Amino acid sequence: MIKTIPLTKENIKTIALPGLERNLFSSAAWLSVLCQTYKLSLFAKYIEENDQIKSYIIYSIVDNFLEQKICICSYCDYFDCHVQTPEHWQMFFDSLRKEYPRYRIAIRNLRDQLARENPNFALLSKERFHILDINDDLDSIWKKTHDSFRSAVKQAQKNGIEVKRGARADLDKFYKLHLRLRKSKYRLFPQPFRFFDKIWREYMESGNGFLLGAYNRDGKFVGGNVFLRCGDTLYYKFNTSDLNFVKLRVNNLLLWEGIKLAKELNLKFLDLGSSGYEQHGLIMFKDHVGAKCLDICHLGFNPPDYKFSQKRILKVFTHTLTAPWVPDFITRAGSSIIYPFLA
Description:
Elements: E1 2-6, H1 9-14, H2 28-38, E2 42-49, E3 52-63, E4 68-72, H3 86-99, E5 104-109, H4 113-117, E6 122-133, H5 138-144, H6 147-158, E7 162-165, H7 170-186, H8 193-202, E8 209-215, E9 221-230, E10 233-241, H9 250-264, E11 269-276, H10 280-287, E12 292-301, H11 312-321, H12 328-338
Helix pairs in contact: 2-8, 6-9, 11-12
């Protein structure tokens, strides 16, 4: 028998979901940030055996003028559900179909082989994913990096780049660069500032998050990385840099300082996140640090009468409000409006 509960902050504390803290994206802290930022409707379905939860899925319900879908799970690089058998996955699928017959189902899958093998889900696309094993000593990790990576780190140091741990006031500097980079290089909205503010309150204030800022010789903030800790892993979650200082090789030094931070915290892995297959430079950057590469699989199911997404409306809105002539404050305001529809 399947049971379903709203996944509120209180319910997370009272119900014993096994393996919830196994990675950042299934953790209670991350889900809390998402709910506070985007007002997600999160639910858990679970199956009990001998009064203990054996399998469960966590999902968000998206229902707006653009589309109707069940997402496992919104605003996450990946989300692997805790499902023990193929039969359990089929039971969860049947339950979702019964409750939401007109909704499509979307899954961002990294390690859940049972979801990939379920015949109801089609493979829609893939992303690259990198994770770095940092169990060796720092000297060994350094020697395993590519020559070009080590050269770039040394070049950044020679250019006078200094990396410091940021305070709350530095979050504004980070966000301004983040907005300009997303807008000018990718023609995309940045995440709304409130998202980073919630992350700061949930992670930095508890000692589980770190903002590393890079400064040039004049003391100008020219790049930054946001790292989040969960379990035995440090997550390289957000990166930004000033495009006017690309030749200083800021990002290489920031990543190396992140590796040093992970070692200082006695962690075992550095999660380098996802990269689009077309992002050849980003993939090479992560390859050169010696990270292992896997695939994130986007799986999906469309019901027979599914009305396809109207997200082309968002594309027009995004393209307009990220134009070079649009002031940054307008782009920032647009991100607050648009991002809740990107679940």
